[in-house]
Amino acid sequence: MKAKQIVQIIGSIILCQLAGLLGSLFTVGAIDSWYQALDKPFFNPPSWVFGPVWLILYTFMGIALYLLWARTQKLRKRHESKNLVFLFLIHLVFNAIWSPIFFGMHQIGFAFVIILAMVGSLIYIMYKVWDIDRRIAYILMPYLAWISFASILNLSIWILN
């Protein structure tokens, strides 16, 4: 791997980790206060699980973003792959705003709409990259599983509260 590629992959991972960092700014303060007071379903994981899981998932997302971006450089004539990078970045914005909406604004229902947009856009991205580079879809599968679970958790908390 060339130095330029290493910088690009690290930059992609950092970009995705920054989305997580933004979310954590709103999450940390709410965990022991507002979130603790909510009624939660029996399948709600302990709070300590979320940090390590998200750290790993944001790293996977960064690798997927790098592979997608690298593929667009090879396929300069294929506008679709460039559009997928843009869609991935839009998806990352949805990801970044979920925590401020859920934990910061306490808007559980609106957060559910956002997480549905996350799930839908990720499924679309994975479907579209399947023919471009299946590795990207495979790397994103654990993330899809987690946000699908998180959407069920979000809905359950909304219903219970």
From TrEMBL:
Segments passing through the bilayer = 7-31, 51-72, 84-102, 108-127, 139-160
Superkingdom of origin? Bacteria
Question: Pfam families recorded for this chain?
Answer: TspO_MBR
The record's annotation in Gene3D superfamilies points to: TspO/MBR protein
By its UniProt entry, which InterPro entries does this protein fall under? TspO/MBR-related_sf, TspO_MBR
- Give the record's membrane topology: Multi-pass membrane protein
Subcellular location(s) per record: Membrane
Q: Which GO terms describe its cellular component?
A: membrane
Keywords (alphabetical) are:
Membrane, Transmembrane, Transmembrane helix
Alphabetical GO biological process terms: tetrapyrrole metabolic process
Family, similarity comment: Belongs to the TspO/BZRP family.
PANTHER family with a match to the protein in the record = PERIPHERAL-TYPE BENZODIAZEPINE RECEPTOR (PTHR10057), TRANSLOCATOR PROTEIN (PTHR10057:SF0)
- This chain's protein is named Integral membrane protein
Q: Which organism is it from?
A: Candidatus Uhrbacteria bacterium GW2011_GWC1_41_20
Q: Taxonomic classification, please?
A: Bacteria, Candidatus Uhriibacteriota
